[in-house]
Specification:
- This protein is an alpha+beta fold and about 140 residues long.
- Helix content is about 30%, strand content about 35%.
- The protein has four helices and five strands.
- The chain has a five-stranded antiparallel beta sheet with strand order 1-5-2-4-3.
- β3 and β4 form a beta hairpin.
- The protein is globular, with a radius of gyration of 18 Å.
- The termini are far apart.
Length: about 140
């Protein structure tokens, strides 16, 4: 076995399975629905959040039903999937979902981006939460 093959085998052995937004066993590890609380404080105050592990980031939005296709198209450009939850006072409650490794800077940037998108489309950004697999005992 060549050195390259041995190295590839070692690397592949340590790969972790990809995380998906519908994986069983996901639990909310951080959530930010108060715009006065910094995302860095939310993440720092979460004992369940594993900084180096990927997480399912879910932005909670209220959008006009007739603008959902436009929102989905815009969000898909950055790897988000738009999932409709339920109607709410004439607006649709939706989740913009994607898997990523979380850090305070990117959470703040994405929160701001979602607020701008929602405002442009006539809706509102409520906040975000993050899910990671529950630790196995």
């Amino acid at each position: 076995m060549s050195l390259v093959n041995r190295l590839l085998k070692l690397v592949k052995r340590h790969e972790t399975p990809a995380l998906g937004p519908d994986d069983p066993g996901l639990a909310i590890v951080a959530e930010a629905f108060d715009p006065a609380v910094a995302d860095s404080a939310v993440l720092a105050g979460s004992p369940a959040w594993v900084a180096a592990a990927p997480a399912v980031l879910r932005h909670h939005l209220l959008l006009p039903p007739d603008r959902l296709a436009e929102a989905a198209s815009i969000l898909a450009q950055d790897g988000y999937e738009l999932r409709e939850q339920a109607p709410s006072e004439g607006l649709a409650r939706v989740l913009a979902v994607r898997v990523q490794v979380l850090d305070a800077l990117h959470c703040a940037q994405e929160r701001s981006r979602m607020a701008g998108l929602a405002q442009r489309l006539g809706g509102d950004a409520l906040g975000w939460d993050a899910q990671q697999p529950e630790p196995t005992a």
